[in-house]
Amino acid sequence: MGRLTKRQQQIIKYQLRDRLDRRKKADMIHSGEVPKYVRDKIPYIRRLSRSLDQVLIVASFQQPELKTGLIDRLLVMAELEERHALICLNKYDLLEHPGQAEQVAGIYRSIGYPVYITSAKSGKGVAALARALSGKRSAMAGHSGVGKSSLLNAINPELKVATGAVSYATNKGRHTTTQIKTYTLDEQTELIDLPGLKQIDFFDVHRDEARFYFREFLTPAESCRFNNCLHLTERDCAVKEAVKSGRISASRYESYRQFVETLT
Ligand SMILES: Nc1nc2c(ncn2[C@@H]2O[C@H](COP(=O)(O)OP(=O)(O)O)[C@@H](O)[C@H]2O)c(=O)[nH]1
Ligand SMILES: [Mg+2]
Ligand SMILES: [Zn+2]
What we know:
The protein is α/β, with parallel strands linked by helices. Helices cover about 35% and strands about 10% of the residues. The protein has 2 domains: about 5-20 and about 200-260, Ribonucleotide Reductase Protein R1, domain 1 (Orthogonal Bundle); about 40-195, Rossmann fold, CATH 3.40.50.300. Strands 3-2-1-4-6-5 form a 6-stranded mixed sheet, sandwiched between helices. The protein is globular, with a radius of gyration of 19 Å. Mean pLDDT is about 90; it is low at about 165-175. The protein binds guanosine-5'-diphosphate, magnesium ion and zinc ion. Guanosine-5'-diphosphate binds near residues 119, 165 and 173. Zinc ion binds near residues 224, 229, 231, 237 and 238.
């Protein structure tokens, strides 16, 4: 057996103790062995995940405003399903302070997720994004109105994907993509355009397990006083210390906290 990753080691330790079998739970979800009412709750992106090479998480800087919560939940999904994840931050042209783009991108790049800053409108970053998608089967996930369909058109104008106007009343964006569509860019490249997502739920993730899917917590977690530290209210928590000193992003930690709150 090859060397185990840090996450695998920690999960194994945890599972041996608590006899939770993460892999088995994930297999059940994908095998269709679960009752229909459970199956209906599995987000489409997750049901699809095993057929994908990677997940492209799309968000926009403005209209709708950037909220990192959904990005972080989609990253959890990618970690859970062991899929490669890429992040695209779109509508760069709408940013008043372009420096903001690098700041947000830096949070994710520093923990190993590739980030593409794009504008489907001006074409910025589109070629680099297209290269990252080339030769792979990817699905695009994100809020509606962030520009998923527009990016597809920017990558290949012949696709003529329908795009929707942002609803300015709510600034949330109406969506026109009502069904899932697969676009074949070339023989090796497929892109799946998914309808806008508001929430992504994980009913199979135990709250004690959530910490394993925030990859930058893994190394500091080794220095927590308690080896089962959830990094919430425990004493001498190295993860919380890393948040204080800025080594872990406060927004990522906040996403973790909110994520745990939604789990039972
Ligand atoms: N200013 C600007 N608007 C964009 C950009 N990308 C998409 N849009 C607009 O945002 C709205 C929603 O785009 P759409 O591609 O339908 O988003 P989707 O719901 O994620 O597929 C449309 O009015 C697009 O013209 C961009 O990079 N800059
Ligand atoms: Mg769309
Ligand atoms: Zn801790």
